[in-house]
Amino acid sequence: MQLFISTVAALASLVMAGPLAPPAGPVAPTPGPEPRIPINQANTPGDADSLFQITQSGSYYLTGNIAGVTGKNGIEITVSGVTVDLNGFEVRGTLGDPFDGIQAVAQSDGINIRNGLVRDWRYGVNLSGAHNCVLDELRANKNILAGISVGTGSTTRRCAAFDNANIGILASDGCTITDCTASFNTNDATDAGIYTGAGCTIRGCAAYNNNIGDGIRTGPGCAIIDCSAYYNFGNGISPGTSCTITNCSVDSNSAIGISAESSNGCTIAGCSVHASGGIGISLGSGNVIKDCSVNSNGAQGIAVNSGNTIVGCSAALNRLDGIRASTDNFIHANTCDSNGANGDGAGIVTLSTDNRIEDNSCTDNDRGVDVDGTGNIILRNFCSGNTSNWDVVAGNVIFVVSATTSGAVLGSSGGTAPGSADPNANYSY
């Protein structure tokens, strides 16, 4: 047994031991990733319409500013699978030239651009024909058509678009835009600080003081989350059909706060819309508006067409009505106070038929509940302090009770019944 153990130990020492002296000659470096390629005339020579041209896939970087380029694009990318690190430098053209700071040819994909400034071009970064690209930590200033433009399925994050003449950030279908800012862009009412196609997600972005156009405008099927739209000269947010807008702050925009008058099937939830020049939230048909605050807007707080659900909202101090609806709407558990401020307005007004108005509180408006059409049902609402608590035409289902006030209550019992035991009664108090 002792012989066996000694043999095993000896074999183990032979396996584990290595040479004590290194091999003769210089030590070769360990193979690593391919190094990045500097952008210069030796590595990326340009052509007739580009100062530099990237024709091979790989990772590239700037070593200094590109400034005052005239009569050609700054960097042209002709292949897929390219990363360009601007390394904190700027790519600057000549304002008025019809060329782009960084341009990719159509049908390329997988292009990444990061960390620098592009200014004074037609497009600062023009990847509109490329797909599945990533832009990160870019600044795009004073470009003519758009600061940043990306193609289908691209991601734009932590970018800032400032003082571009038309659109700050322009994205095609299926894109994601996160943690970006767009300010002082647009000279046309059809443009926006951030403008997307269909099926995009915009999260954590700010659109501020975009001139003439909207703050954020999207195509159908988009999600706008945790964004702010402040002091834009058009609408704050203009979503397409079937969009969701969640937890956004929309304040002091010159036109409408959230406007989708021609769009249907949207959900607006948890948003604050304040001090719009026109309507706070304006939607078409088949939408849901819930848990929103619409205050001090220049027209109605909320205005909708047909088949909408409005639930749990607060509408106060709007110049006209707090909530204005046409037909087939469900208006439930909202608080409408002091609407008609410096104008004429009801807490809730419906214009046509088949609306269900239920469990709302309307106080200190010109009119509390105003129903102008027939065939509506009005249940368990509470009105007080309005110039006229109720203004309901004949032909509707409604039962109103003037609530009986009580003496003081101290202890475990007391008070006076409100005047009706009917569970569907509406109360004036």
Please characterize this protein's 3D structure.
With 429 residues, the chain is mainly β. Helices cover 3% and strands 40% of the residues. It is built from one helix and 48 strands.
| Tally of DSSP β-strands | 48
Summarize model confidence as the mean pLDDT.
93
Reported for the largest beta sheet, the result is: 31 strands, parallel
User: How many helical elements?
Assistant: 1
Termini distance? Answer: 103 Å
Q: What fraction of residues sit in β-strands?
A: 35-45%
Key traits:
429 residues, mainly beta, disordered N terminus
Q: Could you outline the blueprint of secondary structure elements for this entry?
A:
Blueprint lengths: L1 H15 L20 E2 L6 E3 L2 E5 L3 E4 L11 E5 L4 E4 L4 E3 L9 E3 L7 E8 L3 E5 L6 E8 L4 E5 L4 E3 L2 E3 L4 E5 L4 E3 L2 E3 L8 E5 L4 E3 L2 E3 L5 E4 L5 E3 L2 E3 L6 E2 L5 E3 L2 E3 L6 E3 L6 E3 L2 E3 L6 E3 L4 E3 L2 E3 L6 E2 L5 E3 L2 E3 L6 E3 L4 E3 L2 E3 L8 E5 L5 E3 L2 E3 L3 E5 L5 E3 L2 E3 L3 E5 L4 E2 L1 E3 L23 E3 L1
Short description:
The protein is mainly beta and 429 residues long. The strands form three sheets. The chain has a 31-stranded parallel beta sheet that branches. It has a ten-stranded mixed beta sheet with strand order 2-3-5-8-10-12-15-18-21-24, with no helix packed on it. The longest helix is centred in the first third of the chain and has 15 residues, at 2-16.
